[in-house]
């Protein structure tokens, strides 16, 4: 176990003082440069600092350097064993050195050893990484700088070692600046933290800058959401190769990155949607922790319950579904998936509200194997929704299992609370062409209904394609020639063709971004094959490609040694572990001291949010009925609802129109959450007698004090 806290008996100050981060966004990818400043405040001993910190799972680290006092050293990437030997030899010889490597258990955890910092001396470690920005349901591109590394649960009998962070207050500050350069117009940039105003640097609004407001304490995740005006517009980045690279290698030839984000009509996707929907819900003890450290924070299991309500109400009639809770063991609501109707929906909702975080550890591998052992239903493609705080150590075992079943289902994963493992959450979704979301504050999940087909591209999913091209990009630098990519796919059994053109003049100032991301994609694929086959030749391929591209892998590490320092150590070095973040609850293997946490009672609070109350009252077929509970949600009396009903209108039609007008009038900002709930209602209304519809809309607006036009309801 790595206890990321200060180990000194005298409780000396932690030597990490500040973190500085710069982001350069180019269309759908980002280059991140970070600097961490240390000070060895021990005036008698040299210091070896150990810093365990989270990075996004899809990050590709490509640069490391360190400045110790006045000396700056650049890191090289080498195979892991050689790097460790060189680091140990350097410290034994009195040299300054640092070692940075990826965790063998999970690719979203990095470990840095900074060795032989003289007494009273400062040290600054800098590293850079690249990544594709994840796409959200509302079209936003998401970047998250993790401020929390949650404890990781190690299954009984496993060799995984939990890496646990300190529960002390973070003593260092964060400065962050963002530079956005895109082919599309930037609409806005939002954040979970306070930002300075967004500044546009050209009239086209394709170049913008923003910074985190001064004085920010790095005590929580920093989440950024970038919106382009036309997120569905395909974009291409054409990048020249590295002239110094070995001929014929991945880095030498030109590379194309194509981003495609198709948009299909939502009502068409819903009307044709069938399938088997399985919801796998984390009920381990850690799900009883708070979502964040604010005084108004709910616990994680409540967030999961709210999200399940929205999803269950969004399911189409005629599909099949099941809900499975897991912890140290697992429990299914039904022995197998059942037909979705009013009775099964109500039974499931009742049991959802009774769910507690009382099932021990986080053994997700066992219920996954159970799900995959059950046969898929003909004509009902399987879609798996996983809710977890992601506190596991066997991440790679889980991802290997999910990947092995990628042809039989799609996985939609939701990270609950700050510190959820991005490697686990995004990895499960990416392995199956699904979608990943993180619920870190008071937000609920943004539900997405998905079509029955299983092609390469799906509604709400972006595809990024890398292509290595033959020839010399330099020859095309002054030309206006273009290339083209043709994409063929079927939409509701109709053949569709898209042709996307791109300029053969290489994009400037990319810094080999596309090549390195392509190399990282290949490395991840080879690592998966290696874990499944254990061929030694695959490890050699990974190391070779990692060193050629200069990007991290599980078999390589960054090592830097300052050989100009030869002063022998006058006293043994003190090893100090630096806290990665704050964590206010543990989720390790159950121990007697933690029994009360894992077996404690979790109160089920009644729904107090009018929006959730209204959604909970919708029937499985999509309509509402007049009742006292329905009237209370609308803040009206039963008599008021009855007196305003048009004489010729059916009672259920009147109630359903009232609900739609209320949603459009008072919850329009939450449209992404109730869109498919409303579409079910609209489809039901279309099957009714619509003669009284205009009068129902008019009376509903009058009663509720709204001005929602009939066409806004989409009927």
Automatic annotation (TrEMBL):
<dbReference type="InterPro" id="IPR013694">
    <property type="entry name" value="VIT"/>
</dbReference>
<feature type="domain" description="VWFA">
    <location>
        <begin position="276"/>
        <end position="457"/>
    </location>
</feature>
<dbReference type="Pfam" id="PF08487">
    <property type="entry name" value="VIT"/>
</dbReference>
<dbReference type="InterPro" id="IPR036465">
    <property type="entry name" value="vWFA_dom_sf"/>
</dbReference>
<feature type="domain" description="VIT">
    <location>
        <begin position="1"/>
        <end position="131"/>
    </location>
</feature>
<dbReference type="Pfam" id="PF13768">
    <property type="entry name" value="VWA_3"/>
</dbReference>
<protein>
    <recommendedName>
        <fullName>VIT domain-containing protein</fullName>
    </recommendedName>
</protein>
<dbReference type="InterPro" id="IPR002035">
    <property type="entry name" value="VWF_A"/>
</dbReference>
């Amino acid at each position: 176990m790595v206890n990321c806290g200060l180990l000194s008996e005298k409780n000396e100050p932690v030597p990490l003082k500040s973190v500085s981060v710069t982001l350069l966004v180019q269309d759908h990818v980002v280059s991140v440069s970070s600097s961490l400043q240390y000070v060895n405040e021990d005036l008698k001993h040299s210091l070896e600092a150990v810093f365990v910190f989270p990075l996004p799972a899809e990050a590709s680290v490509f640069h490391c350097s360190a400045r110790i006092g006045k000396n700056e050293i650049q890191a090289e990437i080498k195979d892991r064993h050689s790097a460790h030997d060189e680091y140990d030899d350097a410290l034994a010889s009195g040299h300054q050195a640092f070692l940075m490597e990826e965790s063998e258990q999970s690719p979203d955890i990095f470990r840095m050893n900074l060795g032989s910092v003289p007494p009273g001396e400062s040290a600054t470690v800098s590293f850079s990484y690249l990544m594709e920005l994840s796409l959200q349901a509302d079209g936003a591109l998401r970047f998250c700088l993790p401020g929390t590394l949650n404890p990781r649960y190690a299954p009984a009998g496993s060799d995984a070692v939990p890496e646990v962070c300190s529960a002390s207050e973070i003593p260092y500050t964060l400065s962050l600046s963002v530079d956005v350069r895109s082919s599309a117009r930037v609409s806005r940039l939002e954040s979970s933290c306070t930002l300075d105003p967004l500044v546009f640097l050209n009239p086209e609004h394709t170049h913008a800058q923003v910074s985190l407001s001064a004085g920010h304490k790095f005590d929580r995740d920093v989440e950024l959401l970038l919106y382009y005006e036309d997120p569905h517009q395909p974009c291409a980045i054409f990048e020249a190769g590295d002239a110094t690279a070995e001929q014929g290698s991945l880095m030498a030839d030109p590379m194309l990155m194509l981003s495609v984000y198709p948009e299909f009509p939502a009502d068409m996707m819903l009307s044709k949607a069938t399938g088997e929907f399985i919801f796998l819900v984390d009920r381990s003890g850690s799900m009883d922790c708070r979502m964040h450290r604010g005084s108004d924070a709910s616990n994680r299991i409540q967030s999961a319950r709210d999200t399940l309500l929205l999803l269950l109400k969004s399911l189409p009639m005629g599909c099949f579904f099941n809900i499975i809770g897991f912890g140290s063991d697992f429990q299914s609501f039904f022995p197998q998936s059942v037909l979705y109707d009013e009775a099964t929906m109500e039974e499931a909702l009742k049991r959802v509200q009774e769910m507690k975080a009382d099932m021990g550890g986080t053994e997700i591998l066992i219920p996954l194997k159970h799900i995959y052992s059950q046969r898929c239903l003909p004509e009902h493609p399987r879609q798996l929704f996983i809710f977890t705080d992601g506190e596991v150590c066997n991440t790679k075992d889980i991802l290997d299992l999910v990947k092995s079943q990628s042809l039989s289902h799609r996985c939609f994963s939701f990270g609950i609370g700050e510190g959820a493992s991005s490697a686990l959450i995004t990895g499960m979704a990416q392995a199956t062409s699904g979608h990943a979301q993180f619920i870190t504050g008071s937000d609920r999940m943004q539900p997405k209904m998905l079509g029955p087909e299983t092609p390469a591209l799906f509604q709400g999913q972006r595809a990024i394609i890398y292509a290595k091209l033959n020839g010399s990009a330099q020859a095309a630098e002054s030309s206006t020639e273009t290339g083209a990519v043709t994409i063929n796919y079927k939409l509701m059994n109709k053949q569709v063709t898209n042709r996307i053109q791109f300029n053969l003049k290489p994009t400037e100032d990319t810094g080999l971004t596309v090549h390195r991301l392509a190399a990282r994609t290949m490395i991840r694929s080879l690592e998966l094959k290696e874990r499944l086959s254990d061929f030694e030749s695959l490890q050699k391929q990974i190391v070779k490609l990692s060193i050629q591209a200069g990007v991290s892998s599980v078999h390589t590490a960054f090592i830097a040694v300052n050989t100009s320092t030869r002063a022998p150590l006058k006293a043994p070095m003190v090893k100090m572990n630096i806290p990665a973040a704050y964590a206010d609850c543990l989720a390790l293997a159950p121990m007697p001291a933690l029994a009360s946490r894992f077996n404690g009672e979790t109160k089920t609070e009644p729904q107090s949010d009018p929006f959730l109350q209204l959604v909970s009252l919708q029937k499985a077929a999509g309509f509402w009925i007049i009742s006292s509970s329905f009237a209370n949600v609308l803040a009206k009396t039963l008599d008021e609802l009855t007196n305003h009903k048009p004489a010729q209108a059916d009672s259920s039609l009147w109630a359903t129109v009232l609900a739609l007008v209320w949603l459009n009038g008072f919850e329009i900002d939450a449209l992404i959450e109730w869109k498919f709930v409303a579409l079910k209602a609209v489809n039901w209304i279309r099957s009714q007698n619509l003669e009284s519809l205009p009068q129902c809309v008019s009376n509903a607006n009058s009663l509720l004090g709204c001005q929602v036009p009939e066409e806004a309801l989409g009927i």
